[in-house]
Amino acid sequence: MQTSERRGQQRHRTFFGARLDLNHGLSSLDCLVRNIGGRGAKLAVSQPALVPSEFVLHLPKTRQTLRGHVRWRDAEGCGVELCAAIR
User: Fold this and answer.
1) pLDDT tens column, 33-58
2) Residue 32: which domain range?
3) What CATH number has the domain bearing residue 78?
4) 29 part of a folded domain
5) pTM flag (> 0.90)
6) Which residues, 6 or more positions from 20, have their beta carbon under 8 angstroms from its beta carbon?
7) Is 53 helix (H, G, I), strand (E, B) or coil?
8) Of 64, 82, 84, 86, which has the fewest Cβ atoms less than 10 A away?
């Protein structure tokens, strides 16, 4: 059974570490980027409920820092929309 793809852009499977800055940089949370595309990503985090709706995502592998918004959560992580690059 095939599911309908709602994304506008294709995602690429990945497996690299990243960091979420939360609460205006007062705390952080490590995560794994499981897939990423032009405007979104799937993040694996140990406690998805701790990820606020808005955060800053640091991607050391690509040397990017992006603003993000949570679009959905499940027991293993969350899907995020990636917005403007910072720096």
Assistant:
1) 999 997 999 999 999 999 999 999 99
2) 12-85
3) 2.40.10.220
4) yes
5) no
6) 28, 29, 30, 31, 43, 45, 51, 55, 56, 57, 58, 68
7) coil
8) 84
